[in-house]
Amino acid sequence: MMWNFLFSNSANRISNYLTRIFQDFIKSSKSVGIVLLICTIVSLIIANSSWSDVYHQIWHYHISINIPMFKLPHSIMHWINDGFMVIFFLLVGIEIKRELWEGELASFRRSILPIGAAIGGMLVPAGIYLLFNVHAPYRHGWGIPMATDIAFSLGILFLLGDRVPNSLKIFLSALAIIDDLGAILVIAIFYSSQIHLLYLVLALLMILIMIVMNLLRVRRVMIYILPMLILWISMFNSGVHATVAGVLAAFCLPLSSIEKLEHVLHLPVNFIVLPLFALANTDLFIPANVGTAIFSTLGWGVMLGLILGKPAGILLSSYLLVKTGVAHLPAAVRWKHILGIGMLAGIGFTMSIFITTLAFDVDEWQLTAKLAVLLGSLISGVLGFAYLKWFASKAS
Q1: Sign of CA dihedral 362, 366, 367, 372
Q2: Pick from 390, 321, 303, 378: which is nearest to 171 by CA?
Q3: Quick check: pTM over 0.90?
Q4: Digits of tens for pLDDT over the chain (396 positions)?
Q5: Distance between CA 128 and CA 297 in Å, rounded?
Q6: With contact defined as beta carbons under 8 Å apart, do 315 and 338 qualify?
Q7: 202 near 366, Cβ under 8 Å?
């Protein structure tokens, strides 16, 4: 009996300990980046093993769902990229709205620096890409190196703990959110297909309905689900990329309701939607001539856009804003910090890979761009972490 009691107590302590570890992990800002990194490594290993054909067939398995007058995604891959990712963009839209209303972007003085830095960090990488590919058939991929992956960049910055000022973490968060908004606008304007007016009108009608519901103080999010679903289906059929529906829906929801929704969406987005996206979109068979592919003008444009373009654009635009008196550096932040943040902002991953799937319909170009994104993001992350850690040790 005593043995059973001791064994039961030990088992309970171990169970409680493991539960606490798991809860701390999923609440940690580092955890999303770790999960995405693991998924990417696993996906690349499987895609280059004897299971590669089966693995590829899984993601392209045909799913037939028919709705009169509407088309829907037709494979698991398309459901992830055009369906599940809408939930990710809904969460991004909620974060943007919250920051605009009550966060770092709510006042002009606080928001102008991250806004300007984000714009510079998008324009310079796009310019570098075009320098390499302006006359190439894949020049349409200029949007690929423009994006910053919030999960990875913040995750790496948080690994430095108290070695960097908290105001720097806030600055990167605001910059990455504006970067996401820029990427969304680029997708909506430049990476959408032929517009179908009837579906677009239906989408606009759903937006108006949700705005009216908001004005009438309808606070229950459940009531918004049907118009949000119709908005997504309409956008998917309109020619404007379906994921934009997530952001538009977020801006139509009541401000008083989005905090709870953001909390609800956090776990499924970070630990289901994004891992599935990483697994499906890094199903990349690495050819024997991988060096030739990556070190083409397409590969160089993406990699140098991320590795050099991001820090150069962010540092230059921030410097101009501060020196002209339009903005000021956050408390305890120095110019060397801004350069380090620029390096971390070169981690493109989620958004960059997503834009790759929209920019190219040639498999070889997609493969090259995705591999360049992975390599460029890896180099940016390592350089940014090493530089900020070295700078922090020199300053102490």
Answers
A1: positive
A2: 321
A3: no
A4: 555 544 555 545 554 544 454 344 445 556 777 888 899 999 999 999 999 999 999 999 998 888 888 899 989 999 999 999 999 889 888 888 887 887 767 777 778 999 999 999 999 999 999 999 999 999 999 999 998 887 788 878 877 877 888 888 888 888 988 888 888 889 888 988 778 989 999 999 999 999 999 999 999 999 999 999 999 999 999 988 888 899 899 999 998 888 888 888 988 988 899 899 989 988 888 888 888 888 999 999 999 999 999 999 999 999 999 999 998 888 888 999 999 999 999 998 888 999 999 999 898 999 999 999 999 999 999 999 999 988 866 665
A5: 11
A6: yes
A7: no
| Burial tier of 325 (Cβ tally within 10 Å: 0-12, 13-18, 19+) | exposed
Domains located in the chain, CATH noted:
30-395 (1.20.1530.10)
- Which two three-digit tokens encode residue 339? 């350069």
Q: Which residue has tokens 């423009």?
A: 146
CA–CA separation, 190 vs 182, rounded Å? Answer: 12
DSSP state of 106: S
Quick one: how far is CA 219 from the chain centroid? 28
Cβ–Cβ under 8 Å, residues 334 and 267: no
Q: Give the bridge partners for 67, in sequence order.
A: 70
* Residue ranges of E strands in the chain: none
DSSP string, 170-186: HHHHHHHHHHHHHHHHH
Residue 389 burial (10 A CB sphere; 0-12, 13-18, 19+) = middle
